[in-house]
């Protein structure tokens, strides 16, 4: 959407319950090394503009990307703090990269101390703030963290699964891969990957003095926003497509106490409205249009690399809706490569549902045009027809020699059945990952011996009813031993 009407308005309607206070000088100072770059026209803005309302878009309407000068650690070969941005080609980067790996590994091996709050050790235990040098230079006292991350990377390939894991191995057999890992982001505090972006988004809201935060959502972002806003003592406001949000996600959002506005329309309508109302009323917008959310989601990539001992996989495969996650994980791998944390970039495969496939359609035309669709799919989380992060995600696919694939609802549900029956389980949108991998292996694009990481984005309990096979193994019997015996021996 090319519009300038909502992205950056210097004078919202003031409302003391909703509008930000001015950011403190400490907040402004802490973000002095952070800028925002337009992904369309390359215009550059400061990360935080004292006195003005937050900026989510360029004046040209393009979405923004955070650019940071990294304060890299001291090393023996680099005795001074060196600042690197990606225009600087420095011989010192390999040493600084090794040092960063060491710092991150030390933090990961430190047990958390729960008796002290807001302690550095708690931040070290967060699978986002552990990588804080590459995420956001926020002063500790502003950080709102559960903490999040530290999700399991399940080895499920035919070869790397290991003996005894008969159930998990079924996924590798189904996908046709020897070395497959599934990163289960449904193991985050509110049950989806959204918590990683949200901890950074709500921390930015704190830095800006926000009283209220808002998003449009297919359900997971809203649950995450509601939880983190409650923790920060802010008002959470969410816009949902009425009748199109899975029960578990709606229940979470309401329970955490967010003001919930259900729109008679789809996600894309809700997205346009929330952007507009946030601009008008000065509410802090926390969709992935907000570039700081993307910075937090990058941590999925860093945590995968750390779990693989900093050996990048050959492929990274994930479901794609609004395209925030493709943008974020792609950026993480690019930065890890440019900072010499890893020696090669994986190829990216973004998987869309056939009925919600605008990114796939654009990809098929060599990205000659940006497509929109009226979205339909059983995977309500990715029922999105006009993805906001199109330009950011397109860059990831192009730079990584990646691919966009589509899968039918039947393929999504078949893959979900395999993942559920393996004992791991996930929500329908997440299963698009495994359905997509299987298709790409069958087409010979992913080779059977390549090392592949797939992302499972949400927990099984989020959408517990969709895709449960007819005639599942559940019977009601009388409360006597004869009836029970009969049911079991049938
Ligand atoms: N998987 C799940 C479970 C999701 O909730 C989402 C997005 C995606 C995949 C797609 O990620 O949008 O970054 O490409 N959910 C958003 C929401 C739209 O509002 O919860 P994406």
Characterization of the model:
With 490 residues, the protein is of the alpha/beta class. The chain contains 15 helices and 15 strands. Bound molecules: ligand F0G. The site of ligand F0G has 23 residues, from α6, α10 and α14.
Summarize this structure briefly.
This protein has 15 helices and 15 strands. The chain has 490 residues and is an alpha/beta fold. The strands form four sheets. It has a six-stranded mixed sheet, sandwiched between helices. It has a four-stranded parallel sheet with strand order 10-9-8-11, sandwiched between helices.
Low-confidence stretches: 1-10, 76-89
Report mean pLDDT, rounded to a whole number. Answer: 90
Q: Please bin the fraction of helical residues.
A: 25-40%
Which value, in Å, is the CA radius of gyration?
Answer: 22 Å
What form results from the Cα inertia axes?
A: globular
- Derived from helix and strand composition plus strand pairing, the structural class reads alpha/beta
């Amino acid at each position: 959407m090319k519009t300038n009407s909502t992205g950056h308005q210097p004078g919202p309607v003031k409302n003391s319950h909703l509008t930000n206070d001015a950011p403190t000088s400490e907040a402004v100072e802490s973000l002095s090394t952070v800028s925002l770059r337009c992904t369309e026209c390359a215009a550059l803005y400061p990360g935080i503009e004292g006195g003005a309302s937050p900026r989510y878009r360029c004046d040209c309407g393009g979405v923004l990307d955070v650019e940071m000068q990294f304060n890299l650690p001291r090393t023996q070969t680099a005795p001074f703090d060196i600042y690197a941005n990606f225009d600087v080609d420095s011989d010192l980067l390999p040493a600084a990269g090794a040092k960063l790996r060491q710092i991150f590994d030390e933090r990961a091996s430190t047990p958390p101390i729960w008796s002290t709050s807001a302690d550095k050790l708690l931040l070290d235990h967060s699978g986002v703030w552990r990588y804080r040098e590459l995420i956001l230079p926020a002063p500790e006292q502003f950080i709102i963290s559960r903490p999040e991350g530290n999700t399991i990377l399940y080895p499920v390939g035919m070869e790397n699964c290991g003996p005894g894991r008969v159930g998990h191995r079924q996924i590798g057999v189904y996908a046709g891969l020897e070395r497959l890992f599934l990163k289960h982001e449904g193991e985050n505090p509110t049950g989806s990957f959204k918590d990683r972006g949200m901890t950074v988004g709500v921390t930015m809201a704190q830095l800006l003095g926000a009283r209220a935060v808002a998003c449009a959502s297919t359900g997971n972002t809203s649950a995450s926003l509601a939880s983190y806003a409650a923790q920060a003592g802010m008002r959470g406001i969410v816009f949902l497509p009425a009748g199109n949000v899975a029960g578990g996600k709606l229940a979470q959002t309401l329970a955490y106490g967010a003001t919930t506005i259900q729109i008679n329309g789809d996600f894309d309508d809700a997205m346009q409205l929330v952007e507009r109302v946030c601009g008008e009323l000065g509410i802090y917008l926390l969709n992935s249009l907000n570039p700081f959310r993307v910075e937090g989601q990058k941590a999925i990539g860093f945590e995968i690399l750390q779990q693989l001992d900093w050996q990048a996989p050959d492929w990274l495969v994930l479901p794609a809706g609004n395209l925030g996650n493709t943008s974020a994980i792609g950026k993480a791998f690019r930065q890890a490569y440019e900072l010499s944390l890893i020696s090669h970039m994986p190829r990216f495969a973004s998987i869309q549902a056939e009925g919600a496939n605008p990114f796939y359609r654009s990809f098929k035309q060599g990205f000659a045009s940006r497509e929109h669709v009226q979205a339909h799919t059983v995977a309500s989380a990715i029922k999105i027809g006009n993805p906001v992060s199109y330009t950011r995600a397109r860059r990831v696919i192009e730079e990584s020699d990646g691919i966009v694939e589509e899968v039918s609802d039947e393929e999504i549900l078949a893959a979900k059945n395999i993942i559920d029956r393996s004992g791991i389980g996930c929500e329908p949108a997440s299963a698009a990952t495994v359905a997509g991998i299987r298709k790409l292996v069958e087409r010979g694009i992913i080779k059977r011996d390549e090392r592949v990481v797939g992302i499972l984005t949400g927990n099984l309990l989020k959408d517990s009813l969709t895709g449960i096979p007819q005639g599942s193994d559940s019977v009601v019997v009388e409360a006597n031993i004869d009836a029970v015996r009969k049911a079991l021996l049938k």
